[in-house]
Design brief:
The complex is a heterodimer of chains A (217) and B (232).
Chain A lengths: L3 H9 L7 E4 L3 H4 L11 E4 L3 E4 L22 E7 L2 H9 L5 E4 L3 E3 L4 E2 L2 E2 L3 E2 L5 H7 L2 E5 L11 E2 L14 E3 L3 E6 L2 E7 L5 H7 L4 E2 L10
Parallel strand pairs in A: 1-2, 1-5, 5-10, 6-11, 10-12, 14-15
Antiparallel strand pairs in A: 2-3, 3-4, 6-7, 8-9, 12-13, 13-14
Chain B lengths: L7 H4 L8 E4 L9 H10 L4 E4 L10 H6 L3 E6 L6 H8 L4 E4 L2 H13 L3 E4 L13 E4 L2 E7 L3 E11 L5 E2 L8 H7 E11 L19 E4 L17
Parallel strand pairs in B: 1-2, 1-8, 2-3, 3-4, 8-10, 10-11
Antiparallel strand pairs in B: 5-7, 6-7, 8-9
The chains are: A alpha/beta (217), B alpha/beta (232).
Chain lengths: 217, 232
């Protein structure tokens, strides 16, 4: 099974040269630590910056420079700052090529739920609904099952949706899967994880076509 | 065109029970700290607050929630605030959650004379309930209406008495679009400059959108998530 950093590392392999990328809170944020050599990307944070850099050195934090997770960050040379309306114009207008975000549930038709558990947790959707409704390329980073061991890759989401038919790829601690018209297509297994284990942990339709290779990290 | 007022107290003069306010900021970054303190002092209540977030328990809009001055919040994300959650779950506080991009655009539209617009955000979710759906080029969009406020409370970096303002870093966030959408827009600045002190090429919001401006004091600028890396 992959840990959080390895999930991020695997997702980083999807980055393409010249892409603008929006990383959600949690595992997605870690993707920035694993940009492959020779790949030049710029990170967008929906609170209004492009060209987000690493965390500041201790003592150099600036309260006026945070990311959408409200963490103190820095800017890369050539970065830019803008207001929330322009930020979402970039997102809605499809000028940002990739969105990576976490989820509580994903359905085998690409629906995603990640903002609300009725009666329990209501934090709000933040920018997630705008992001998933517009991005061409949406990768979900999450654990394959929840804390109770139940599958998070479902035939249909049970929680209130964030977006419909939008997720293209899911990278979990067990597998890499594409969303196809016929369900989750298993592309890669985490090292040491068997097809049977993935099948048992996947409630939605799972397509296994021949030998499925192990991920290379 | 002198829009200068003395302080926050004079800035928020006229805000009455039941009014709708916009408050700039993202988390605690770029919030109108002085105006919020002044609002807490007045005890004005039954407010509808449009703001991306609702502060934390003991800062920002959280201070107004503690004193139950807020009747309704219109926001995109309200985590990090126990008192908020308590009032929401008990039904004391009405909450309208809106996708962040739609919230920003609804403010912008409100200030730009556009009554409504179609957006893909929220289609197929509970956000779309009761809203008109229309297809453009085969894709579904929902109709969202503009937002306006009796008062917009804005935090800027520098400004002059004409109301021209500029922002610093990501403290910009919702402040510009809210500045546009207030019937009365009140701006607090860290540094008040003489007219001509700001390069006209780099004004973020022209003074035409601003009715009152004042020199703010004592900014705390709290950091919610202090993240750093060690010096190599």
């Amino acid at each position: 099974m992959l840990d959080r950093n390895q999930i991020a590392q695997r997702i980083a392999q999807e980055l393409q040269n010249g892409w603008y990328v929006n990383l959600g809170i949690g595992i997605p944020t870690l993707v920035a630590n694993y940009i492959p050599e020779g790949i030049d990307v710029e990170f967008q944070s929906e609170n209004g910056l492009l060209g987000m850099g690493p965390f500041p050195f201790e003592g150099e934090e600036d309260a006026d420079l945070i990311n959408a997770g409200k963490q103190t960050v820095t800017m890369m040379k050539g970065g830019s700052i803008f207001d929330s309306s322009m930020s979402f114009a970039m997102i809605r207008g499809q000028h940002v090529q990739l969105t990576v975000l976490g989820a509580m549930e994903v359905s085998d038709s690409g629906d995603i739920a990640n903002w609300k558990i009725p009666g329990k947790m209501v934090k709000g959707m933040g920018g997630a609904m705008d992001l998933v409704a517009s991005a061409d390329n949406i990768i979900v980073a999450m654990s394959h099952t929840n804390r109770k061991g139940q599958s998070k890759l479902l035939r249909q989401c049970s929680l209130p949706l964030t977006g419909v038919k939008c997720v293209k790829k899911v990278v979990t601690n067990m597998a890499v899967l594409d969303i196809t018209p016929n369900g989750f297509e298993l592309l890669e297994r985490a090292p040491g994880v068997s097809l049977e284990e993935i099948q048992a942990a996947t409630e939605g339709r799972l397509i296994i076509d021949g030998d499925v290779p192990e991920m290379k990290l | 065109m002198n829009k200068l007022v003395k302080d926050a107290k004079e800035g928020i003069e006229g805000i009455k029970d039941g009014m709708t306010l916009m408050l700039g900021g993202f988390g605690l970054c770029g919030i109108p700290e002085n105006c919020i303190s002044a609002l807490v002092d007045t005890g004005v209540k039954d407010l509808t607050c449009i703001s991306n977030n609702a502060g934390v328990d003991d800062f920002g809009i959280g201070l107004m929630l503690q004193r139950t001055q807020v009747k309704k919040m219109i926001s995109s994300y309200v985590g990090e605030n126990d008192e908020f959650e308590r009032q929401m779950l008990s039904g004391d506080l009405e909450v309208d959650l809106i996708p962040q991009g739609s919230l920003a655009e609804r403010c912008r539209a409100g200030g730009a004379g556009i009554p409504a617009f179609f957006t893909p955000a929220g289609y197929g979710t509970e956000v779309a309930n009761g809203k008109e759906v229309r297809y453009f080029d085969g894709k579904p969009y929902i109709l969202e209406s503009a937002l306006q406020a009796d008062y917009a409370l804005v935090k800027a970096w520098k400004g002059d008495r004409y109301g021209n303002i500029i922002f610093k870093g990501t403290a910009r966030n919702f402040n510009p679009v809210m500045a546009m959408a207030g019937k009365i827009t009140v701006v607090e600045v860290e540094e008040l400059v003489e007219p001509g002190g700001l390069d006209p090429n780099f004004i973020h919001i022209p003074g035409v959108f601003v009715q009152r401006i004042f020199q703010g004091t004592g900014y705390e600028k709290r950091i919610e998530q202090r993240t750093t890396r060690p010096k190599a």
